[in-house]
Amino acid sequence: MADIANLEVLNEERWSNAKLTRNMVAIGKSLVAAKPRYQTVERATGVPWCVIAVIHERESSQSWHDSLAQGDPWNEVSTHVPKGRGPFKSWEDAAIDALVNCAPFLAHKDWSTPGSILTNLEEYNGLGYFDGPVTKRSGVIVARYASQPSPYIWSGTDQYHSGKYVADNVYSPSVVDLQPGCAGLLLTMIRLDPSIVIGATRKPEIPLPVPHPAPAAVPAPVAASWLARFASLFGGGKA
Hints:
Blueprint: H1 4-17, H2 25-33, H3 35-45, H4 49-60, H5 91-101, H6 114-125, H7 128-131, E1 134-137, E2 140-144, H8 151-154, E3 164-167, E4 170-172, H9 182-192, H10 226-234
Antiparallel strand pairs: 1-2, 3-4
Helix pairs in contact: 1-6, 2-9, 3-4, 3-5, 4-9
């Protein structure tokens, strides 16, 4: 069984260090533009709208005709895992079902830190990369590889270099995933929409105005006494 706590630590560290290696601005703008639709699903599930957006991009290239669960048409019964879902009345209904009723049940997850957010996303796709990718033939493992950052999360950042499942149970260490990963999309979206906060890290910093000390109060001149004024007028003083 995968050590989820360890994966959260790894993903938190990767998030802190990650730098984009591809331009994802066009895709990021399209995802941010659809924020109201994603927020409808967020209100029903508790899953952050930006997380829903990046799943939508990874699963179906943001097609509104395909389900968030696996990219099958939402108005038909799904044939890919999770199988047998639908048909649904709308994209939103299908998305809610995927997040509430399908493993790993994201509607019931913790979203409080970058590590938990990115690990939840990795679980949504599967933990095969973290466990160590394998190639199978007729159900028998014929090749096993070391654990690696998931391209579903890290493609398009310096945390990922190569390695991808090119078919069911077929892994190639040399193939590069060209689809933008969830972390790279989130980094891009944060720059486009500063209201997005991924835990306590990468929070957009708005500089506070520099306080300037108030000028010191100048005391009002003390009025000379009547006697002093009288003395000045008549040259009074000691003989």
